[in-house]
Amino acid sequence: MRRQRRLLAIGTAAALALVAACGGGQVRGSGDRSPGAAPSGAAGGGAVDTTFVYAPNLDVVTDWDPASSYSNEIIAMQNIYESLTKFNIQTQKVEPRLATAWTASGDAKKWTFTLRENVKFHTGKPLDAEAAKAAIERTKEEGAGAAYIWDSVKSIKAKDAKTLEFKLKYPAPLDLLASADFAAYIYDTTAAGSGDLKKWFAEGKDAGSGPYTVDTWQKGKEVELSLKAFDGYWGGWQGTKYKRVEFRVTPELTTAAQLVQRGEVGFAPRLNPQLFAQAEAQGAQTEQAASFQNLLALFNTQHGPLKDVRLRKAVQKAIDYDGLVAALKGAGAAASGLVPQGLFGHVPGRAQKQDLAGAEALLKEAGHGPGGKPLKLTMTYAQGDADQQLLATLLSSTLSKLNVTLEAKPLQWSTQWDQAKSGDTAKRQDIFVMYWYPDYADAYSWFVNVFRSSAKPSFNLTYLKDDKFDEAVDKLTELAAVDKDAALKSYADLQTRLIDELAVVAVPYVVNYQRVLAQGVSGYVDNPAYPNVVFVYDLTPGA
Amino acid sequence: MPRYLTRRLGQAVLVVAGVVGLTFAVMRLVPGDPAVAFAGPRATEAELAAARARFGLDDPLWTQLWNYARDLARGDWGVSLHTKQPVAQDLALAFPASLELVGAAMIVAVAAGVPLGVLAARFKAGLPDFSVRLTSMLAVSLPVFWLALVVQTVFAGNLGWFPVAGEYDNSLDVTSPLRVYTNITIVDALITGNWPIFTSTLWHLVLPALVVAAYPAGVIAQMTRAALIEESGQDHARLARALGFGRIAVLTRFALRPAAGPVLSLIALVFAYAIVNGFLVEAVFNWPGVGRYAADAIRSLDTPAIAGVTLLVALLYVAANLAVDLLQGLVDPRVRGR
User: Fold this and answer.
1) Which ranges does the record mark as transmembrane (chain B) (predicted)?
2) Does the global pTM surpass 0.95?
């Protein structure tokens, strides 16, 4: 027995020694394990450097290609890459980023951007007009994600090293489009040399010009991504700044709250109202910020009972807007029209109120309501979304008192969307609930994507076909570029048409972000044009 | 023995084939278009069509099943719609962390469960027995997710005795980088003598391992108690007692060894169960294991990843069952004839 044990011990030790001696092991957290190897000119990260830790709920990067990236990675990409311009939420204006100045022709079909001098990509190559042209052209060609923001561009010309000239097919606010949260990044298209650039990016490498560059990327690890300061950044590194950024994936909100409280994490992008209140009570640095994301209840105008505009108006009036906002405890705010506050096109003073008497009268007029024919409606919403579920619960309770049965089904997005696009119109829902947000700081996205008609439904899930409306939408971009006042009026008119006249949509609330920051972090400004992004370079670390 | 072995292996292969068929059926029966999950919520029709073509979603079902089984056999478990990486590669990165957590939990469970079972058997119907039975019943029936949150809030959040989350202090990646061989952090730290990461991982393991250990410890304590009580009633144990051996000596020297068979079998089965049970604990403690991967996969309806996790868990169960059968066959020759 003793001999067996001794043999076992010797065997185990030998196996371990063999593994260790075999070599081939890779160093975790260093460039040679992760493909995100340190590019030249990067500032060496170290434990002495101040590190800003962000705690996202989901994995950080799903697409490394700045041309097609259209997901969670925005929180990292906006610190690695830069666009020509940036939308400032405080002034509600577009401000310089890689471009220092720009001019537009009178008809807004020719735009000239002057590029910032002495800007280098993380690859070491200088960022000039030719490089910027190549990046935008590649993004356009890839045609993925939000690449449509460049649809209006007919041609790009690098007039000299610092001057970039765009000729457009139709007038468009290109300065605003160039500030988009996705697809507007300028990057070094020659980073992979003669290799495949998409594959090069997919290895977790970057070719941006922003303040930070990829240090390590370890998919599936707790700290999935860490960035380090780029020494050659045009903004310089004077003053106290964070030299490292880490993204520490924290799916549980309770865990995130505790990590911020202990100072292990600098920023948690989202807490639930209970945890948010708790963090506030414990003296944490909290911020409640309005977003550009609102919840939409889209009514089926082509099939089923809601073809009748009176019934659509009745459902609109049955929604308990104030009750919903109160129950959300700060996670939502009352909506005024279709366009959230802070965006061009927003109309103040248009918040809707519940009107049960009005709803009952409309139902009666259509032969339904208490004492009338029973009415059954189907509604689909996102599975696992407690806030949408709240809407479903409150609305079905209200409608049941009006002799209307609301069959609310929580579904996975792909199922919900598939059903809504089904060729068999009978399979489609009466009410489709979803969030919408713009890809750049403009209201156009709601009108063109959600309400403009198309041969096959995509996101226009009211199935609205209204030629006059379509015509007005098609003129919006041009109007916004050449005549702001006329554009604003058009936006207001279109919202009246959609909400009051055609009653194709109800906007239950606008989403509020409930953020928590560690003590000592200063300089944070929430910018809903770049959802959940912390521009770490602008922050000042605490003592 | 060879016939017994062949029969058991044959059965295991059949079970695996069944699981492959079932996961494929579930993948295809789940409503919703996997192409939407891959191409993103705002994908165009052209992008959706490209995604469908890439994953062969337009092929007939039988062709898809055949391709799926063939690829699995080749080690190609498909590409995750969410991470856009090969599922097998994702799992190979995540599984060692789960193994580390559950391995630590099993050590705790055995170290606590077996002595508690002996104690309960020694004082059968007495206060220690009652306490052990009550504690193990609680350990088995408390929801693991709830237990994780409570333990984390009290011992990490409020008292600050242990880290809130994570596998080890992340700054050690810079100051004391770990050379990776097995991808099981604590093992790699041990074999490379990286003591800062070793101690940090050990420290981070305490709370999640205790939570994952609760269920197995409870089951092992109950099973040990029952097996010992049964064995100590057998003739050989009574003879030992008549020869003058003390109660504890009879239990540990004469009854525990024959009772070890069923207890060992149980440990193997509980181990496979603990991997799945640990998923929720991983989510609470940010443990970078299969649990987090599965949660992300379910949230984004990432069918290849969900199928990959299901298959991995099924394989674990099959392996555990096979190990139990072989172990019992070795220990007890009567089993081989069955």
Assistant:
1) 12-30, 101-122, 134-155, 202-221, 263-285, 305-327
2) no
